[in-house]
Amino acid sequence: MTPDQILEHCRDLSGQPLGAVAERWKATHPGGRVVAAYPVLAPAEIIHAAGMLPLALLGGGTSVELTHADARFQSFVCSVAKSSLELGFQGIVKGVDGFVFSNICDVARNLSSIWKRNFPDAFVDYLHLPQNSTSPSVPVYTANEFRRLAAGFEQAFGLKVTEPALAKSIEIYNALRARLRALYAFRIAEPQKFSTTELYVALRAVTCVPPEEAIGWLDALLAGLSLRDARPRDRLRVVVEGAFCEQPPLGLLEVLEEAGCYVVEDDLLLGWRWFTSDVATDGEPFERLGAAYVNQAVPSSTRHEGREHRSAGLIEKVRRSKAQAVIFMPAKFCEPALFDYVLMKQGLERASIPHMIVEFEEKMWTFERTRNEIETFVESMLFD
């Protein structure tokens, strides 16, 4: 398959309802179970090691109208929480057997209990992951949380997560994330050959299929991209930061590129790219995975190592990708991203790195004002 054919396949996969994805997999895996995880801190290895299909619960995007979920939340709650719950009310996640949430923010903390109250027949688990990652006991605690989750799967579905199965799943997801890191490295080197919208639909598709399947077409994609014939254009190299949980509309990413940007780094779908390097292959697998979640995680607004760590992580990302500017792109009402914006803005200004902010909602459908703002920012940088 050519890169264009693979990416068209990815676009088709990423546009399918979650329930349809689950039912399609179950058709070839009789008796199989499917578990969806909220966007960040997704323990895909544990779900996979139980013989289940891990999926990402990413909200309803532009395709779901809120008819029930609004009444369960305050008006100042982010769109992804509301639309994720709406998927349940409208039966769009029928076929998904379980849901895993974690404490990435106050909204996510409460979404699990709201989900459980409205859908009592579904398996729902809330991961109490550590907020302070500096204590030496944190990796052990995290490993025990993963063991508790695995025990919950066994109790609910009769599917045991054995140590050999988890070790194998860690190897498979190491291989998957290595391909994703290679895609990001290729975009940094040759953004004219691989647009961010293309990278994004590939990432979305990865969350819809077993990792073994994704590895196959990611290898073919990586092999084909280098053969594309495209010359670099006079564009602004930017890092997009803040869209780690609620995902931006594809139209907004297209506007970024049409307005004159090469997006060379981002934090899109961060939960499925959580580690900076491979999880260790030696030792007890739950402990290895717990240690990796603490010690090998990318800097993120969902972690609380201190403001300097997160600001330094963003500046390092700018330097490594040879970016010229940062575009903060937080979702409306996303407290972790908007809180960190002030801290990161100060860090960028101390480092003399230009930046701007563009808020979004997943149901945005008109982008002209945003396009004008980005074009003005790009022109001020390129033609100053």
How many helices does DSSP assign? 14
> What is the CATH class designation of the domain at 16-161?
Alpha Beta
Q: Give me the secondary-structure category.
A: alpha/beta
| Order of secondary-structure elements | HHEHEHEHEHHHHEHEHHEHEH
Unreliable runs: none
Q: Let me know the largest β-sheet.
A: 4 strands, parallel
Would you identify the CATH architecture of the domain at 16-161? Answer: 3-Layer(aba) Sandwich
Task: Please tell me the overall pLDDT.
Answer: 92
CATH topology of the domain at 16-161: Rossmann fold
The strand count comes to 8
The helix fraction, in percent, is: 40-55%
What does the overall shape look like? globular
For the termini, the CA-CA separation is 43 Å
* Beta-strand percentage range: 5-15%
With strands numbered from the N-terminus, the spatial order across the biggest sheet is 2-1-3-4
Radius of gyration: 20 Å
List the helices and strands and how they pair.
Blueprint: H1 3-14, H2 18-28, E1 34-37, H3 44-49, E2 53-56, H4 79-89, E3 98-102, H5 106-118, E4 123-127, H6 138-157, H7 163-189, H8 196-206, H9 211-225, E5 236-241, H10 250-258, E6 261-266, H11 285-295, H12 307-321, E7 325-328, H13 335-350, E8 355-357, H14 368-382
Parallel strand pairs: 1-2, 1-3, 3-4, 5-6, 5-7, 7-8
Structural overview:
Helices cover 50% and strands 10% of the residues. By secondary structure, the chain is of the alpha/beta class. It has a domain at 16-161: Rossmann fold, CATH 3.40.50.11890. The strands form 2 sheets. The chain has a 4-stranded parallel sheet, sandwiched between helices. The longest helix is centred in the middle third of the chain and has 27 residues, at 163-189.
